[in-house]
Q: What sequence folds into this?
């Protein structure tokens, strides 16, 4: 199972839009997909509840809704055949929780808005994200997604200069379109609309291509096996010294030991 985290500490950056559409595209590609709604606002859960039954199914998990007739572990179970596990994270995530999330993820997508405030917040967040990546023994792929893009604007030019200095690849550019609002209201992904998605089709195809190229679920099973311990090198040992001869006791006379005379 490949775990994908959509995260940015800045609120309103488009995490839910990215997570729901990404889960939708993975399901449309034939992969068994689960969507974990870690945001207390439960926007992804509301989107799933309005999703038509005729669309490819996405398994939804909401840890903030606890039912009395089932255990917490049962409600948060993941189907064993799940291939992709998409996490929609909350805003303002604390550093300890970020470290906990990074222990089990394979890929991270960070949505970024073309505004000075968002760029400043994203810069600080990426520094914390890079620190969190160091706690993992295996590398984590990180990609940036430009959200609510408007072509040929000064804000876009500033954003491109900022992202060039970050050193993380831009894997997608999503335009500022009302079609995302239309799709969300119907429980659909933007590429499931009957019309109005052509402009975004190439962008989502590129994001999905980048994700599938780096996903390797088979490696996860291999990593779960314990690694063999290296053989201990042979350390040459010095020969033990021969035991010293026992001192010769003086003969005894009448049960008493006769000591040699002293001069």
A:
């Amino acid at each position: 199972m490949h775990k994908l985290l959509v995260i940015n500490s800045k609120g309103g950056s488009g995490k839910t839009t990215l997570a729901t559409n990404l889960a939708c595209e993975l399901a449309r590609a034939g992969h068994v997909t689960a969507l974990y709604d870690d945001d207390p606002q439960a926007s992804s859960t509301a989107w799933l509840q309005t999703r038509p039954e005729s669309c490819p199914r996405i398994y939804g998990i909401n840890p903030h809704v606890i039912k009395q007739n089932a255990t917490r572990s049962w409600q948060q179970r993941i189907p064993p055949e799940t291939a992709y596990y998409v996490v929609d994270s909350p805003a303002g995530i604390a550093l300890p929780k970020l470290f906990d999330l990074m222990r089990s993820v394979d890929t991270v997508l960070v949505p970024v808005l073309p505004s000075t405030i968002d760029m400043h917040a994203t810069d600080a967040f990426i520094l914390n994200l890079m620190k969190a990546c160091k706690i993992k023994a295996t590398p984590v792929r990180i990609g940036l997604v430009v959200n609510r893009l408007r072509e040929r604007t000064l804000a876009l030019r500033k954003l491109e200069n900022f992202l060039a200095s970050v050193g993380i690849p831009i894997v997608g550019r999503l335009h500022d379109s009302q079609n995302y609002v239309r799709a969300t209201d119907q429980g659909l992904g933007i590429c499931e609309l009957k019309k109005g998605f052509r402009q975004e089709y190439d962008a989502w195809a590129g994001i999905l291509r980048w994700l599938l190229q780096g996903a390797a679920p088979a490696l996860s099973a291999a990593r779960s096996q314990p690694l063999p311990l290296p053989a201990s090198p042979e350390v040459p040992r010095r020969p033990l010294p021969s035991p010293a001869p026992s001192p010769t006791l003086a003969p005894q006379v009448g049960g008493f030991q006769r000591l040699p005379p002293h001069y």
User: Anything to note?
Assistant: The chain has one domain: 2-217.
